[in-house]
């Protein structure tokens, strides 16, 4: 009988089966997640940038750029208008910023110390101060006292001599005695010359305006424009068969109104004052109810109202008067129609400088 083998009961070998369960690989970390998140963030920022470039204007893009990179390091929230899309930044025109940065430090000069001891005479020539500009009288002593360096203790300050007094009744820069008078006289003469030239132009414009109007061309002989010592006098005269006013009436007729409109258009462009005077002939009124005084004053006042309606400022009117028959244009013919007139005078701003004026004469009443 055979015995048992090494391997088992019946001598068969023992087989050991090892089974390992399938499992995942070991842990490799999450670095790839961080890289993927960075990639997605970059792509989102890129597409956001593309959208902003397409949907915003130049001013808005300038505001966005300053929002992310502010120019003022002391105020990170300063974006010009306070909003990203405000469109104004600290770099816009007119902003109070400096191109040297928000913070600028300047180092001043250190004060010079004058504590060098005098060891003896020096071969270097003494330094001389540059000459000071001339100072007005009365200021030099005070400025000299301020500019003088402080004296060491125990040493007397040098005395400053006072300025030499000027002769009584004079000043350091008195002009010659007649210089002011000559300058004023020359100025008055120049102003009078310019004013006379302006009056000549105004007279020519009035004559031309009447001459060029077919309805008023025949009234040229009833218009008298001349320069007198008082200024430029414009007179509207009556004619034998062509009156400016109805007999005994203060209201001007239509032709007189049209002629006054031409005169007012030119007078309105000059700044001179105005004087209006009414005149009549020597024909007396019947009865005692009215006289030439009332009639002449009423005609002057009617002309005043027409000038104001034409645009003449009321502040320019200096006088409105009626002279009746006391100042006739033709003294040898007191009943002549030409004595019935209205005179408008543009007064001179420099009285006494016109033609025929006596030296030093003042303004006279306009006839």
From TrEMBL:
Gene3D superfamilies cross-referenced by the UniProt entry: OmpA-like domain
Entry-linked InterPro entries: Bact_OuterMem_StrucFunc, MotB-like_N_dom, OmpA-like, OmpA-like_sf
Key words of the record: Cell membrane, Cell projection, Cilium, Flagellum, Membrane, Transmembrane, Transmembrane helix
Region ranges (Disordered): 75-98, 114-179, 348-367
OmpA-like domain span: 232-350
Composition bias, Low complexity: 137-148, 167-179
Membrane topology category: Single-pass membrane protein
Superkingdom of origin: Bacteria
Keyword Membrane: yes
Biased composition (Pro residues): 123-136, 149-166
PANTHER family cross-referenced by the UniProt entry: LIPOPROTEIN YIAD-RELATED, STATOR ELEMENT OF FLAGELLAR MOTOR COMPLEX
Family: Belongs to the MotB family.
Name recorded for this polypeptide: Flagellar motor protein MotB
Native species: Roseicella frigidaeris
């Amino acid at each position: 009988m055979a015995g048992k083998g090494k391997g088992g009961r019946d001598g068969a070998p023992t087989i050991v089966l090892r089974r390992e369960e399938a499992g995942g690989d070991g842990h490799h970390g999450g670095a790839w997640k961080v890289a993927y998140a960075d990639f997605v963030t970059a792509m989102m920022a890129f597409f956001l940038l593309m959208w902003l470039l397409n949907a915003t204007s130049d001013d808005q893009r300038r505001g966005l750029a300053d929002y992310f990179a502010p120019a003022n390091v002391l105020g990170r929230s300063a974006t010009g208008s306070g909003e990203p899309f405000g469109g104004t930044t600290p770099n816009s025109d007119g902003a109070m910023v400096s191109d040297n940065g928000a913070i600028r430090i300047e180092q001043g000069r250190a004060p010079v110390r004058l504590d060098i001891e005098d060891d003896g005479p020096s071969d270097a020539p003494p330094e001389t101060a540059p000459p000071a500009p001339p100072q007005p009288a009365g200021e030099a002593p005070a400025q000299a006292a301020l500019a003088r360096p402080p004296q060491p203790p125990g040493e007397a300050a040098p005395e400053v001599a006072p300025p030499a007094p000027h002769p009584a009744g004079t000043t350091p820069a008195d002009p010659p005695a007649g210089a002011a008078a000559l300058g004023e006289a020359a100025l008055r003469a120049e102003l009078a010359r310019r004013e006379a030239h302006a009056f000549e132009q105004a007279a020519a414009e009035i004559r031309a305006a009447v001459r060029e109007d077919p309805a008023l061309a025949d009234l040229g002989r009833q218009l008298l424009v001349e320069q007198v010592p008082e200024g430029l006098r414009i007179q509207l005269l009556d004619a034998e068969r062509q009156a400016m006013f109805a007999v005994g009436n203060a209201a001007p007729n239509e032709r007189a109104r049209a002629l006054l409109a031409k005169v007012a258009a030119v007078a309105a462009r000059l700044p001179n004052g105005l004087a209006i005077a009414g005149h009549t002939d020597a024909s007396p009124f019947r009865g005692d109810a009215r006289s030439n005084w009332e009639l002449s004053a009423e005609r002057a006042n009617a002309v005043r109202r027409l000038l104001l309606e034409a645009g003449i400022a009321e502040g320019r009117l200096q006088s409105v008067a009626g002279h009746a028959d006391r100042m006739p244009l033709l003294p040898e013919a007191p009943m002549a129609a030409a004595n019935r007139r209205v005179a408008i005078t543009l007064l001179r701003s420099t009285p006494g400088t016109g033609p025929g004026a006596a030296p030093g004469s003042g303004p006279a009443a306009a006839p």
